[in-house]
Amino acid sequence: MSYKVVTIVAAALLVSACAAAEPIGSRAAGFGEAFKYDTAIQIINPDPVYPPEAAQPGSNGDVGAQAAQRYRTDKVKKVQTMETTTGTSGSGGSSGR
């Protein structure tokens, strides 16, 4: 066989293998609810709500620039702590000794 024939046969096999592949949509139909749920939670929220102090879409980076400047001058904002529970906790059982 010549090099040209081998190349043509290899290309034909490659094209036929690609043509036999199923489209993604048809495979997705067989996965069920778990697949649909996982797909839905990864879709971007079309109507997001941003906190007032956060960077807004379309902003020119002022919030990030101010944060970088605070970091460079060692004037980083303090982390706010909050309590989620009150009281004390214990082991809840005996050691069995």
What letter string, H or E per element, gives the SSE order?
HHHH
Helix content bin: 40-55%
The secondary-structure class comes to mainly alpha
The total of helices stands at 4
Estimate the global geometry from the Cα principal axes.
elongated
Average pLDDT metric: 76
**Biggest sheet statistics:** none
Low-confidence stretches: none
Fraction of residues in β-strands: under 5%
Alpha carbon gyration radius: 29 Å
What's the short version?
With 97 residues, the chain is mostly helical. Helices cover 44% and strands 0% of the residues.
Descriptive report:
The protein is an all-alpha fold and 97 residues long. The protein has a domain at 1-43. The protein contains four helices and no strands. The model has no long low-confidence stretch (mean pLDDT 76).
Q: What keyword list fits this structure?
A:
97 residues; mainly alpha
Topology:
Elements: H1 3-20, H2 24-28, H3 33-41, H4 62-72
